[in-house]
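Tokens in:
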């Protein structure tokens, strides 16, 4: 639905050019979100010891909202807006396209909606001066496109068969067990990792940082172990938690991220677990502050 510069989509509601709902200004989208600072003041010198900066939820505000309808149809448009921005516990996709560049995505809830009621506005079908405010608990913004990087366990090439024949057949190419992923944004992003059996003690290591995720359990053919690094969960076949299967060399799931730029990942398994059908898939979106 988001195709034109100025389009804003929240769930199924579309605002902007060629829609019933227009807007004039947007704040909180391109600004740095508020943050908590872990810096500690020095007791014996000027300044402080630098600590981590952890971003708080992002607040996004649309001001100057204008609603235009046929005369006598304003209440219907307002009720549609009210239903789409009702208070809710879960977050919906918020997609904003400012110009010819690809739109960016956030997940948010509408926490404030204002529709002025003035004499004549409803009758003629024009209401001005409205506002909408959203809160995104994850302050990062993401590409719409989810990228998937597949990988298989290391395997050697079978080489030439004997007797030789023409054309020469070298067999299926081998696998290095490594995969490359690129986060085109400027913020770390949390991927979703899927291990598929048959494989024993699957692991995925970021070669650049040394961070590893490894789980001491066997996966049979058809079984899938999903690691959600954002939520910090490890789920077998979409039903049973296997968080306890993490080995001592695993880092906490929520700390395993893809930094901006290109990362090289290594898919490995227990010695002797070499089934060529075992695989890993890394699903992620590039993230932006």
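Residues out:
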């Amino acid at each position: 639905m988001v195709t034109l510069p100025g389009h804003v989509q929240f769930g199924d509601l579309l605002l902007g050019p060629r829609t019933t709902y227009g807007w004039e200004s947007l704040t909180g989208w391109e600004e740095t979100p508020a943050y908590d600072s872990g810096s500690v003041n020095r007791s014996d010198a000027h300044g402080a010891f630098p600590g981590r900066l952890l971003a708080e939820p992002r607040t996004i505000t649309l001001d100057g909202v204008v609603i235009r309808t046929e005369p006598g149809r304003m209440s219907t448009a307002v009720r549609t807006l009210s239903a789409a921005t009702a208070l809710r516990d879960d977050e919906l996709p918020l997609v904003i396209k400012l110009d010819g560049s690809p739109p960016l995505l956030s997940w948010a809830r509408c926490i404030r909606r204002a529709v002025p009621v003035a004499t004549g506005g409803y009758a003629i079908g024009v209401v001005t001066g409205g506002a909408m405010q959203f809160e995104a608990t994850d302050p990062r913004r993401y590409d719409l496109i989810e990228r998937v990087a597949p990988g298989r366990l290391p395997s050697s090439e079978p080489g030439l068969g004997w007797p030789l024949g023409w054309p020469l057949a070298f067999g299926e190419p081998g696998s290095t067990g490594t995969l490359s992923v690129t986060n085109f944004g400027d913020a770390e992003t949390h991927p979703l990792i899927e291990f598929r059996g048959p494989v024993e003690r699957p692991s995925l290591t970021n070669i650049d940082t040394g961070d590893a995720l490894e789980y001491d359990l066997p996966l049979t053919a058809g079984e899938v172990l999903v690691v959600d690094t954002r939520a910090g969960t490890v789920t077998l076949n979409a039903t049973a938690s296997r968080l306890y299967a993490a080995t001592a060399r695993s880092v906490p799931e929520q700390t395993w991220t893809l930094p901006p730029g290109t990362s090289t990942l290594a898919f490995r398994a227990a010695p002797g677990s070499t089934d060529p059908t075992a695989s890993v898939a890394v699903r992620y979106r590039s993230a932006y502050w």
